[in-house]
Structure formats: structure tokens, C-alpha cells
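W.,

You were right to be curious about this one. When I first looked at the sequence I had no strong expectations either way, so I just let the prediction run and decided to look at it fresh. Below is the sequence, 275 residues in total, followed by the output.
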Amino acid sequence: MSMRSAYRRVHDRAFDALRPVSIRSGAMKFAEGSAQIDLGDTRVLVAASVESRVPPFLKDSGSGWLTAEYAMLPRSTHTRSPREVSKGRPSGRSTEIQRLIGRSLRAVVDLTALPDRTVLVDCDVLQADGGTRTAAITAAYVAVVEALGGLFLAGDLERWPIRGELAAISAGIVQDTALLDLEYCEDREAQVDMNVVGTADGALVEVQGTGERRTFARSEMDRILDLSFKGIEELARAQRSVLRPVLEEVEAVRAKGRRKVALPKDEKQLWGAPE
């Protein structure tokens, strides 16, 4: 029996159960949207900022953009890791993770509803005990909805850009047992390691799966995906609870419809034709 499997039995945590999860929105004072997620001993802080610009490849396209950055604090792990800025560039791992976060969020955001705007999502790992990339995605969704909700309610967006609910979770096989939401010691021992990004209605966005120590059967993959969607459903409920106030306001505005603002009259309409 693995060390973590023994821990789960001692602490009555089922193999298909998430660690204790807490999501808090508005975690930062100045960001348009922000959230902190605590998933067991993993803690990630996310800020969503909105800027009135787009990358050059989207100029004059009528579309907006969303991108992400990811970093770990030096003592988020058991031993100190130097800040990546001191190395002059992100590590390959950080680059891969921030691209995953950006891709995942763009799957549920209608960028054409954000003309000439860029949403920048900053994900900082405060403490790492497994599943930091999936926790970042789950918290980032909350931060982005909060940011875009503020813009929509202020009348800065003509239509609501969120197309679905998004969350992510890790799962894998440890000593031939499928487990949900791997902690660090489980991840270290995992025979199969998988990160699953999906929507609350059961659609997959991205799956990253690796046979770390052995191959795995299709039936095992299906078992891991089933566990993952169970976790995603639970995370989506937590997100919904946190976002309920802003989403209720958004739905109220959408139900009434936007009132079209009359365009200013030109000089001729205002004063009549010159004599």
C-alpha cells in the first residue's frame, strides 16, 4: 500500500474524493477579477486583468484575446527554488502550463464579445502539494468570470462572453488503484498521471495523460476520466456558489436586454440647415 493510500484510509478520504476545497473570489484589491483556491495543501492565487489592446495578429479583427502566466513562489515547495525571473525566462514547465491555462479558458470565452481587449490571467502558486496547474485553471475561471462580469454590468460589453463552466482536476493510478486529486506524494509514486480539463456539462477541453511507470489500458483511462468528471462537477458547484452574486446580476441584465443608446445627432439634425 502506498503512503498516500494508507493516509486516505486512516483519514477516511475515499479514492474518488477531492481534498477539502475552498474558493474565494475578490482575493485581491486592485485586479478586475481575482480568486484564491485552497485544495488540500495546494494554494493558488489568480488575478485577471483587462487591458484595451490586443496582440498584433488580432489587430482590426474585432476579436479580443486571453492569455495566462504561471509561476511558483520560491518556497511553495519543500525546498526553495530560485525565481524564474532571475534566470531570464520561464522554465519549459511553466511555459507549458501557462499555455494550457490560456487554451483552457479560451475554450469557454467568446473572444468576439471582447473586441480590442485582452484578459491577462496571472496564476501564482503559494503552496504546492500536487495539482497546481489544474487548481490554477479552476481558480482562473472564477477570476475571469468576476472580471468580465464587472465589464458586462458596467455596460462595457454588449453581450455576455462566457459560454460554459470550466474546471480541472488531476487523477491517476497509484499501486494499480485509480485515485482522484493526487497529492504530491501520490503524484510522485503514480504509475499513471493525468490532468483533465472539462466543462460542468461533461465536455472535455483537454486531457494530459502519461504512463509514468507503465502502460495503461483503455478501461483504466475511462475509469480515470469518470473520476475526473466527478471532481469537476464538485469543483463547478464550488465555483457556482462563489460566483452566484455576480451571475445573478448578469442574468438579470440579460433577461431585461440591453437598452440601445441613441447616437449623438449631427450638427444638421441639431440646428437645422444653415440659412
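Here's what jumped out at me. The domain at 19-81+91-257 is CATH 3.30.230.70 (Ribosomal Protein S5; domain 2). And, maybe more interesting for your project: Helices lie at 3-10, 92-106, 132-153, 184-189, 218-256, 267-271.

Coffee later to discuss?

I.
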